[in-house]
Amino acid sequence: MKNKYRDKFPAKNPDGTNQIDLNSHKFIKVWQGPNHPGITGNMSLELILQGDEVMDCKTHVGYLHRGFEKLMERRRFIQCFPICVRIAVPEPDFNEYCLSSTFEELAGIEIPEAAKWMRTLLLEMTRLASFLMWIGGQSAAFGLGVIAQWGNYARDLMLDRFEEISGGRIYHMHMIPGGVRGLTPDGFEKRMEDNLREIEEIMSDIDKTLFNNAIFKKRSVGLGYIDPEIVDKYGVTGPNARAAGIPKDVRKDYPYLVYDKLDFDVITGKDSDAFTRADIRRKEILTSIDLIRQIMTRMPKTGDFIAKMPNVLHWKIPKNETYIRAECTRGEFGYYTVTDGSKYPRRINVRGPSYTHAVALMEKLAIDVNIADVAGLMVSLHTYPPEIER
Amino acid sequence: MDKKDLKKRTVTTPDGKKIEVDPMKDYFSQAKPKIHKPGKTVFEKFLDWARAESLWILGFGTGCGAIEMRPLMTPRFDAFRYGIQWRPTPRQSNVFVIAGYLSVKTLKRVIRSYEQMQGPKYVVALGSCTINGGMYWDSYNTINRLDYYLPVDIYIAGCMPRPESLLAGFEELKKLIKQGKGEGANIYAEKFDWYKNNQKQIIKDWDMPDYNW
Amino acid sequence: MKELIKRLEQNFQISNIVWQRENEVFLTVEKTDAVPLITQLNHYESFTHLVIMTAVDWLEAGKFQLTYLLNNNEIKADIGIRVLLDREKAEMKSIHHLWVTAATYQRELHEMFGIDFPGSPRVDEPFILEGWQEIPPYRRDFDTKKYSEKTYFPRPGRSTNDPQEYMKKKLYPEESE
After folding, report:
1. Quick check: A162 contacting B, CB < 8 Å?
2. N or C end of chain C, less CB within 10 A?
């Protein structure tokens, strides 16, 4: 809650920031991260405190920079796939999808119907897994560690299904240019249904223990209010924008794969604080479960799952550029790919939603927040550092 | 961090006195690390057993391998039953899990955290990228061999290793410690100049003290 | 969308229009026209969302291509605006007054490509790299493999497994590149 004496001290600069003089002994500078248990991933916040309230915040990123965009420039198109998944670890499938569909669009390849359904299934599963992991982070940031254990356990159930499909728990690399590596194995539906039921049970427990929890409500209601006016100026997308009442959802606005055949609603809120964002993500989890059920009943069980491809080792794509977007758990995820007619991509640029959320938006929202709530605020924006610096 | 905060300067204290501070010297010890020769007695064996059974990991997810540490903390894999738990500060922990690739910027923080840990301390290198660079062997920002900068006790290969293989790795580490082979802190002290030289070669922006304890 | 482009063509020097999809178009604009065009699209045509802002290095032509991708969520359309800059003295007007996040993009471009954006907040501060002394790493003439081999003590044995060499030697011995 905002301190009512805050408009008297410190004085404001003309641009609205606080006037800070560290030598006056009225402020203290604290670094949160990179080695900090409350931070999601590996980034640091340079906080200037007055009492226990944040007066100024600067984000420092770059601890996870691997130079993917440079590395992909010196790899052939098919060689990009093993490394592109490592950009966003909780949701690797979005990298696979966006990269393969930019290549397919630039090379003019149409993927078979079964592959489209399979890709949608994988994307929804990875959304579900990532949201469940986020629940763990959010509750742990507010001191409710047990719910974090449930969330992570539920995520593990999804990872088991991924392992069954693709052989990998974290990195699947199941989508390749032209389609997917295979369809679902025998008996997959039943095991998936069992898991979905279990996750639904866990979600109803989480609803009781987290969303009706006095501690969680008291700390998250009113925290990190995003004004709907600034949504475009700060490039806010995904659940953060939907919590502000703006129905932005790439799955509805620019339907990709088979999302136009599925039945779901865009979930919006109106209070735009950390609690609303959490509530929207809870409803998104239930939507994802519903979507997975829809996909499982309607997807073709047999048929072609990969289009006829040229020899991918010698694959040349004509000179062109394109941008493909998808709705990941954090917002709009996109790949901008430029080719120059050779065997190597000219440039691949990744738009991670955290890029805008964790730097500019975080620096704005952290002002006047209590230092104990900074970690919770950060998790409520659902930032993930590797996609900022790539 | 502001570079000017690290320079020698005069500050006024709240009660009006003027004092000189040199952050690089005043706040840190100037002594090189010492080698603590382990004894060969039964008591030392007992200590090794005790150390092996309480591996306290520094909660610093340095790379993408940290994502498989979360399932380890949950009931399904439950590392706590092996005496493994996560601590928030380097002063309380004795195992440093390097979770995957290290960018140069992180390596600097890792070295600081490692030096602040109490000995005997162990380094577990997780993932192929700590062995030879793995996926990022040609990247301009990630190191290739971790053992040039920190003494590594055990490698867990894979990209990324499953929670089961992490548990197996910790079990191997326990065996090493019980045999009295977990001498990472002593090796670091012995070859201190070589490690420092390697670290300084790649961390171009060296603005931290040489001895972080 | 087509009318919009026609309207824009009357006021700005636009060339090389490519319709990538029905609702996604890429066009090249003169350097001096770029910021006025972006401002008009933002203020009057409700292209209010800056999706990405990035650069492509065309080393052979000696140019940097700066790409601004703007999105209009009302008519569900994207416009990609390409601006060609001289590679030697790369400088561009800042658009941080339109989008706060543009400052972050510009900081990254300044660090990774060496394109200068005078007036953009904190543009000279290091963003991702720390203590970088070489040429900006995303430029095409920076060889990341060479730099890595020179700097990071590569473990011997790795070089024989370079996939490109392996493919050339083992799978396609007849192919010479």
Report:
1. no
2. C
